[in-house]
Structure formats: C-alpha cells, structure tokens
Amino acid sequence: MAVDRALLDATLDVIRQSLQADGGDVALIDCTDDGVVTLEMQGACAGCPLSSLDMSEGIERILKEHVPGVTRVQPAAF
Questions:
Q1: Residues paired with residue 32 on neighbouring β-strands, in sequence order
Q2: Tens of pLDDT, residues 18-50
Q3: Is 7 helix (H, G, I), strand (E, B) or coil?
C-alpha cells in the first residue's frame, strides 16, 4: 500500500508543533514505496540524546497509527 503523502505531511505538521515548542523540528527526507519514512531531527532535537527515543516511540507510533502504509521510521544518515 502506497503512503498518502498529503496525510503524511499533515500528520507530521501536527507532530512538528510539539517539537517546535521545545526549539526543535523534524524534516521529511524520504518515504519509500514500502512505507519506510526517513526523517531528520532539527534544531534542539538534532543534538538531544532522547531524539532517537522520540523518533521510535513517539513519531513512529503516531505515524503508523494515523498514516496507512507506514511500516517504519528511521533517522536520516548524514
């Protein structure tokens, strides 16, 4: 099942509000046909030791729950 990019973007916008309240942000880097979403943590989130937990237990859970087709969320490797 292909991921609805508009729904993915809208859901990330809701998540982004919480991150921005703490000086951080998240950017969508890629979304593959098999539902793997690659995100880059930005701002205060980029250097936060809890960002990997936020991504796996928070963002991934929310995206899987609200965006059909999302199978996994991974951090961007730069």
A1: none
A2: 999 989 999 999 999 999 999 999 998 888 888
A3: helix
